[in-house]
């Protein structure tokens, strides 16, 4: 009988359980799971997860013990799971999983590889299921009209970003449940078809240099206080490093060595370490932030909504100007914003370890020179350094 757990996946799971010192659950499909122990290496318990009369229940099938003759292997576990499912069907009126059941299962499946912020967001989406009153709806009764009606009559009806995030999470959970053979295939429309009135997500708007010049002058004129100082420091670091906002948030002093900032893989979108060259003027401003920085607060709360931009748009500005000035360094420019390298074959990326260190130093230095030439950024940095002892 076919299943998703292989010997290779099992070995990886055993190593994860030992390294993380927590139980690791492998899903074989059709509700069959192997829960690996972290206290006894190579030992686990087979379970069949069923949903009867709206209640999720785990049925123990047997023990897996690596290398032991009495161990329940893959084939035997699958056969026992099949027999038990047949028995359950004959003796009970089976009910489909509820929407909340599959969303919780999806979160549990993903939580070992998710960042803390992502887990918080996923948990919030599960709470939203209760708010829009579809948490306890059986999956086989889920229709586009039902989802639409429940959302537009809920307190979330005007929260477009929350609706978009919740619907994306719901689709991902459904796809996971289908792949795990927990439910039959169910198709829901795209969010633009379900809610045509929803505005599209905001583009990563790139500010023009003329506006950036004016904006920096207004930043210099701002009354300095703890909040303004924090946001101006974040703005300078993002502008000069072409980093994403989440790469600036949660930075630590230990990530910098001389003028080089090594951002760890877990904070990168690509899940690969990223190297940034910091010009000398930036070094006094490189420090941790007490709490998270928000684009909308900087744009609306600090700058009074005078400019249309996102922090991410500064990456676009960096890339655009550097391409204009040094088109011959396009791969290095791409590396500066952690977009990787061009390869003839996809597998080449696992072999090519060149990190463009010299080119990064050259490009980030040129970018800072360009900003100094067209804006009063050096004056703003000097102002922040002057108030460093007071607000950092």
Automatic annotation (TrEMBL):
Belongs to the 'phage' integrase family. The keyword Nucleotide-binding does not apply. GO terms for molecular function: DNA binding. Keywords: DNA integration, DNA recombination, DNA-binding. It comes from the Bacteria. Transmembrane segments: none annotated. This is Phage integrase family protein. It comes from Psittacicella gerlachiana. One of its GO terms (biological process) is DNA integration.
